[in-house]
Amino acid sequence: MAAEPSDAGLFDKRGVPATIRWIPDAEVSLCKACGLLFDWVRRKHHCRYCGHVFCDLCTNFRSLIREDKILTSPEKRYLSVNAYNPQRVCEPCYTILLPDQSLLCETSSNAVQPNSITEAGSKRFLNSPYSFTLREEIRKAAYSVKNFMYDGLIKDQSIPLPLLTNAKGIAFLTVLKVGFVVTGRVGTGLVIAKLPDGTWSAPSAIATAGIGWGAQIGGGVTDFVIILNTRSAVDTFCAQGQVNMGAELGVAAGPLGRVAAGAMEAGPGGIAPCYSYSHSKGLFIGISIEGSIVVARPDVNMEFYGKEVTAAQLLSGQERRPVAAQPLYDALVAAVESPANGLNRGVMSGRSSSYAPNPTDNRAQYPPQPLSAPATSSVAL
Q1: Domains identified in the chain and CATH numbers
Q2: Nearest to 206 by CA among 272, 280, 299, 303
Q3: Each residue of 219-233: pLDDT tens digit?
Q4: What is the Cα–Cα distance from 287 to 279, expressed in whole angstroms?
Q5: Which H helix or E strand runs over 286?
Q6: What's this model's pTM, rounded to 2 decimal places?
Q7: DSSP per residue over 141-165, as a string?
Q8: What 8-state DSSP symbol labels residue 114?
Q9: Angular region, 286: left φ>0, alpha ψ -120 to 50, beta rest
Q10: Residue 165: is it exposed, middle or buried by C-beta count within 10 angstroms (0-12/13-18/19+)?
């Protein structure tokens, strides 16, 4: 084997890179840290701060870097780098950058960048079942709030105002389901929790996947809004995994549909009482028995917040509310104040449609009184 070209002074005595430049792939065949040979399994990765080439294990670190300090290939300038995302770095560079991370998280992360949604058009009804960023999940959740609660566009599936007012948390999921007899489902979303002061927590990214079987055929995309009625329900989303076992009977045809389902959410945190609402796009007919798992997405959370943060930290209020989540918070406030919820207020007050329940009002306590018009699309057992 040919000797590896030497890079004199690559690291000083502290292990800090002495030279900072983008090293072309063709110049190296060994990892600069562990010295192992690159092959089809052990791939080459560049440190975005010093520019040297390492294997995956030796660059298993992520740090926010000032945009003017991020190194890229001179031959691939057309490939843009999102400066708001944590970048792959080697261990010595990770140590160098560590003191600046708190400031960069507060000024340069995805969480502190403004986010917005489009009010007009059909995009609000066409959420993608799989998103790679929490910013996109926030926009999807805001659209779901507007569709289910705010503008009253899905009138037979509007969520009763007392449920929203007294909710301990809300989970949003967009799920793709397709198959014949045996079906598969996959989707992504987020979960937020109600804090003791009445505000909503920072969002945490979640994903779901599962299989089903039965007399069924078709495919479709469904937006779910899951009202978490107890703190224990929220806690299940803080755990490593959550198993969703239930029986589902439904028909989804055309741009909007309705699903009637009985489900029990069970996870390491215990039984999670919740109500699930949905609207579907597509065609799916049949009866099925389904099993799925809902898990946190720590990689998506890290990309958004610029640091490692757990779902428990986010849902307990240990992380400040991100600027990028403001569209979701605004949509939830508007849902409570929306005229579309006037029927709920009138039923709860028994006198006028101007009544706005609050957590301390006995008339607004969970469970709510039955409404005179159909409002729920699913009931949790």
Answers
A1: 14-108 (3.30.40.10), 122-337 (no CATH)
A2: 299
A3: 888 888 888 888 888
A4: 17
A5: strand 274-296
A6: 0.77
A7: HHHHHIIIIIS-SSGGGPPPHHHHH
A8: -
A9: left
A10: buried
